[in-house]
Design brief:
By secondary structure, this protein is of the alpha/beta class. 45% of the residues lie in helices and 16% in strands. The chain contains eleven helices and ten strands. The strands form two sheets. The protein has a six-stranded mixed sheet with strand order 1-2-3-5-7-10, with helices on both faces. The protein has a four-stranded mixed sheet with strand order 4-6-8-9. α1 links the parallel β2 and β3. The two termini are 32 Å apart. The structure holds coenzyme A. The site of coenzyme A (COA) has 16 residues, from β6.
């Protein structure tokens, strides 16, 4: 049984809660491992079509890597930790959409975790930052790359070089988060969004996610070619037949994921 995460299934949506509220849900090695294991399990669970990740308590999504684990750690040890099953890479490669439900501090590895998810929905109380520079280090979980791709070099540089936090409204203005809601509405609004996505064909969702992610990895020509292949691959599914038939019959499609 995992100790640092909670996993709940609500219909087609799974909710993974990082559960170390007394440490503001800081990601220690055990928590990362448990999250990576949970992603492995959920990947093969056909009943789950969308994953929502959040932090326990009212104060924090994730306040970063567990700084206590950094003390005395050597460069080689830290490199091995980062190369071990990475939860950031696992989230990005996960074949189902992941929504980060950001309920508070979203710092360092927490911001990098949110950046590895597909959609970010924040409470108006959320605070964002890459404060690693204050520890004499830099982001190592993708922050310099994914943040830069999302908000542009100038703003990413400012956040990473100053280590200063920004509020939810500014994060929205930068495009770092998709939506901001009053804290009391965050869960309901996020689940509404998750359920809306969960109604779609899981095959089309996986193809769409993979194709959008390709935009950050490939040049335009390669990305467009790959998109045609993924688009065509959707034509091999029963879901495509169902979607087209439902449109022509003027009814709601029922996608089976086949
Ligand atoms: N790693 C380990 N422990 C952390 C942590 C982290 N990233 N962030 C918070 N905690 C712990 C604190 O040490 C404290 O533990 P304690 O009660 O045993 O002393 C507990 O969580 C509560 O945090 P606290 O600092 O008392 O809360 P606060 O409201 O005063 O401040 C923050 C909140 C987020 C501003 C502050 O905790 C902070 O700066 N955290 C580190 C953020 C960071 O640098 N992240 C990047 C890491 S690479």
């Amino acid at each position: 049984m995992p100790e640092n995460i909670l996993l709940e299934k609500r219909g087609r949506v799974a909710l993974l809660t990082i559960n170390r509220p007394d440490k503001l849900n800081a990601l220690n090695i055990k928590t990362r491992q448990e999250m990576a294991d949970a992603l492995d399990e959920l990947r093969n669970d056909d009943a789950v079509r969308v994953l929502v990740i959040t932090g326990a308590g009212e104060k924090s999504f994730v306040a970063g890597a567990d700084i206590a684990e950094f003390e005395g750690r050597t460069a080689l040890q830290q490199r091995a930790v980062m190369h071990a099953k990475s939860v950031f890479t696992a989230a990005e490669a996960f074949p189902k959409p992941i929504i980060a439900m950001i309920n508070g501090f979203c710092l360092g590895g927490g911001c990098e975790l949110a950046l590895s998810c597909d959609i970010r929905v924040a409470s108006d109380k959320a605070r964002f930052g890459q404060p690693e520079i204050n520890l004499g280090i830099i982001p190592g979980g993708g922050g310099t790359q994914r943040l830069t791709r999302l908000v542009g070099e100038g703003k990413a540089m400012q956040m990473i070089l100053t280590g200063e936090m920004i509020g939810a409204e500014e994060a929205y203005r930068l495009g770092l988060v998709n939506e901001v809601y009053p804290a009391a509405e965050l869960e309901a609004k996020t689940m509404e969004l998750a359920n809306k996505i969960a109604e779609k064909s899981p095959i089309a969702l996986a193809m769409a996610k993979a194709s959008v992610k390709n935009a950050a990895r490939m040049n335009l020509r390669e990305g467009l070619d790959a998109e045609i292949d993924l688009f065509a691959l959707c034509f091999s599914s029963e879901d495509k037949e169902e979607g087209v038939r439902a449109f022509l019959e003027k009814r709601k499609p029922e996608f089976k994921g086949r």
